[in-house]
Amino acid sequence: EYVAAAVTACRDALEGRDPDTETLRAVFSRSGFTDGYYTGKRNASMFGYRTKEDVVAANDVFDRLRELYRDERPGQPVDMELTVHPDVPSELAVKAENGVSASVTGDVPQTARTLPISPEFALRSLSKTGGTAFVLKDLKLDAGEGLMLPSSALNDLRRRALEELDRRVLSERFPKHHKAESLEPTLPEHKAPAHPEFRYRFETARQCFIPDDGTVILPAAEAAAHPELADRLGGRLFAEIPAYVWPEDGNELPDLLKTLVSMGVRDAVCENIGALKLAADAGMRPHGGAYLNILNSEALEEYRLLGLEDATLSFELSFALARKLKGSLKRGFIGYGYLPLMNFRNCPAKANIGCGECRGESCLTDRKGESFRLLCKDRRYSQLLNCVPLYAADRSIPPADFETLYFTTESREEAQRVAELYTQRKALDGRRTAGLYFRELL
User: What secondary structure does DSSP assign to 207-272, as a single string?
Assistant: First the structure.
């Protein structure tokens, strides 16, 4: 119904008619229309609200819209010939207009107790082609004297005959392709080290502890604000380029990256493909973040060709599939963290309390009473975090070059505690999730 209303309004506008905005308003939200993100005003006015009363009031509109698409796909005309002879299986042959045909056999006809089979009786069953790609055009009946087939037998003949015809029509339209023996070029098997590197990603410097080895990752602005960390960590500090960058940011981010390079920070975690160029222009080595959504060997290879030093696999990729990935690019995964579930350009907490009273500590509560933290990203966007952390250290994990512990709202003490458990492959107490690592995405 939503699609029917939107497409009808667009078609009316394209053809010079006034679109029915009242129907659109009834279907989507009786509170009216918004400018959305077009005006750049990120406040409550950009949202449309739909109440229970709106839904009830729209029922009549829904019924009317359903009529617009009830017969949206006209069936392909087919001719049928039903053959019913004594002591042999009945047969139904069907033929489409493009010449493709099919036939099936069914029950042996019975002797009629009252009325024998007639064209009218056969038509009632054989014309019921709803739900298929076909519609009956002509029916020919070749029947012996005094014979009968019940409706159930006719329905079965019709169903099987049209299914076979559909297969043959599709085969005619889309010929089968032969699978190639191999894909070129072939990628080498991945060889991971015996012991992976540990990377510690922090949201803020006040969470950060200095590990004995491994890499520390901080958001670029946070890293630039704490040059003492760059001095202490040397080449072990990576700067995370924001996942989202807007035109109004201007040269702020490129200048920030140049500042980091001057501080000795030469590695950047890139969460979108555009960040690779930003890193390269600043003279930094790019490392792929999880937001690149790398799910297969070909993607790893393409990013290697684009200059990535290594890549974090998507946390939507199962470990079973991760083990099968090939290629020479180093790869790793997020092993711990309250994973982001959704990102908001317009923060849902802002509409109620505004930014001034939030202090970056707002939550959303679902119908089960679960609380989900909202993480503020410099008031540019906000991130909804899962209510339980991902934790994979004590599970069967695939070989990897590195594993990342992704800290967001934890205190420094909590981050140290989790890191100690994780690096020793011990279980994490309390609630946790394995995410999609042990499920199949497809």
Answer: G----SSSEEEEEHHHHHT-HHHHHHHGGGEEEE--S---GGGTTHHHHHHHHHHHTT--EEEESS
